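Write out this protein's structure.
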Amino acid sequence: MAPIGIAISRGATPSDIVDCVKLAESLGYESAWVAEGHGGDQFSILSACAATTSTIKLGTAISSVFVRSAPTIAMAAASVDDLSNGRFILGLGSSHKVQVVPEHGVTYEKPILRLRETVEVVRALLAEGVVSYQGETITIENFDFWFKPRRAEIPIYVAGLFPKMTEVCGEIADGIILTRSTVKTATEIRRNLTVGATRVGRDPADIKLTSLLPTAVADTRAEAMDMMRPGLGFYVGFFPRYNKLIASYGFEEEAAAVAEAFAKGDMEGANRAVTDAMIDATSVAGTPEQCRERIAAYRDSGIELPIISLFSRGGDAKARFEAAIRACAGA
């Protein structure tokens, strides 16, 4: 089976997510990823997954470098890695100012540098068990582990969208986590990774290229498209960075229309402004066969690990997620 992952970002309870991950493992999925946001504490959920699975890799997609301290991230990563017998992948990202500041009351400055310094601190703690660090965004007088991590090195994947960050991924990451990519994205991203990797003498082939692919499976393509509309509408309307990303795919007018409606609090209008073409370019949506074909197209384009990303609202979220996991298995 070609490698495929699953990610859950919204709609399911923590116990529902654990059940979905168990199902994914039974169907041969390579990895399972849990988002942060408002969906429950990702490290707690992954610890429960670790206790009830045995082979599937477990990752964060992503953990914000602003809302937890670097030592806290390192402790959490080492804990899940120990509980899973070395199956953990730490996915890190800079998150978004529109989330970090109003939702967490944390200052959002120098996100790329904050990410670099967090990676340095986490790796030092895993390798040495102790760290003293003086950076521009992080200062640690002294912090030491009171336990020995199972592994001195844990894979660290970094989220990136645009050239500057994706080049940084080439410098410091074991893998890159893309989001809402198209079948044309991988070629450009691989070039950016190569620029960064070459700058520090790394082999760019060592950096795994993954992408979160928002996914909806239904009996008809039209139904699946409608399932996807609220999620894409929210991302384009709420996050300036994702609005810029979708616009860069050739949807400038559509992205502007979504943002305008969203700013007025008109969610129905924002969803109506999300066209089928926008969904088709950035998602996996359709019947089970259509979804499997779409995942294969992403893999053929250079995405080494396609990760179906499940998002839903309402009490039937778990059932929808399980149906998608079954439909996409073996893609």
